[in-house]
Amino acid sequence: MSGTVPLSEYTKIDLRSDTLSLLTTGMRRVMAEADVGDDVWGGDPTTRRLEGHCAELLGKEAALFTTSGTLSNQLALRVHTAPGDEVITDTKYHVNFYESAASAGLASVALNTVDSIDGVLTPELLDFALQRKERKHLYAAPKLVCLENTVNFHSGRVVSCDSLRRLRRRTLDAGLTTHLDGARLVNASIASGVSLTDFGETADTISICFAKGLAAPFGSILAGPSELIEKAAAHRAAYGGGLHQSGVLAAAALYALQHNIGRLAEDHGNAQLLGRLLCQHPAFRIALDTIQTNILVADVSMPGLTAAEFVRAAAGEGVLLAERTATSFRAVTRLGVDEAAIRTAAQRLLTLADRMRGPAVA
Predict the structure, then answer these.
(1) CATH code for the part of the protein at 13-22+263-361
(2) In the prediction, which pLDDT does 355 show?
(3) Are 352 and 314 in contact (CB under 8 A)?
(4) Strands annotated E in 210-278
(5) For residue 265, with 0-12 CB atoms within 10 Å meaning exposed, 13-18 middle and 19 or more buried, which class applies?
(6) Architecture of domain 34-259 in this structure
(7) Which has the closest alpha carbon to 329: 356, 316, 310, 349?
(8) What is the pLDDT of residue 4?
(9) Residue stretches of the chain with pLDDT short of 50
(10) Which residues contact 169 (CB under 8 A, 6 or more apart)?
(11) Looking at the whole model, is its pTM more than 0.85?
């Protein structure tokens, strides 16, 4: 890439998460110049613009600016359910894997989880969840289905719009509402060529995180019917999530939506490049066809070496990775890590693997 400053041997390349993207000069400028008011009093004009833009983008009546994707998910649980209701989701989706305590403590719901093979919750899996136990008045009543797109735990897999539509038909038949955790939905849109509006049609409420691939410093949006968003705003205040002069942060999110969507294709390409380069060494087992967006998961197959040990060793070589399982690590491409950095990271990891390899990978 022309104009790129060469990486020194001491430069750290951080691939732990796309939440580590640094603010660009343009984003900092719009934040400094943002028109602000007080959002708690309903008077922050930049926040109102962001919410209106996102509602239109997702084809919903209204939207609410929140502090995080987790808060958006938890607000969705509150507005769709009553205490004691059942929520059906995949075991590896964020709302269960990372938020099960919050889901129980804040929304007082029971999570009925299923284990999909590839992260796609199908009508058949939904039926299994509905039928796995008797439905008597003493038991939790199923009310909500929570989905995720892209699927973090499955290498940023894109759940197709057709798949979501098939599930939507089944949820409607069963009288269930649907929430889509779309923390990286914009990545799914770019990778699949499907509009955010089309994805929005597959769920009653939907969220997007601005602080991941979109590279803003903060926040998420929850979009849906006006009545539900009004209720969500009340719960947001009760959870301590009310924001005062939030326009400074909303301006960054607006800038991200205007400038950082198209460039996600570069992140996807860099993740695929990293996968191809690492596959040159037998120490790394990577299913290249699973790299659909900006997340790569590699199994470290060296005998006697755990993922934690490899991640620590990689950090010593200036490449920061995230441990995924006992035998695998995750690398996430993002704004600020260009092709040159990816090639440097790959070379460092290949050299490290060569030094650490045992007889099973010789």
Answers:
(1) 3.90.1150.10
(2) 87
(3) yes
(4) 220-224
(5) middle
(6) 3-Layer(aba) Sandwich (3.40)
(7) 310
(8) 43
(9) 1-5, 359-362
(10) 123
(11) yes
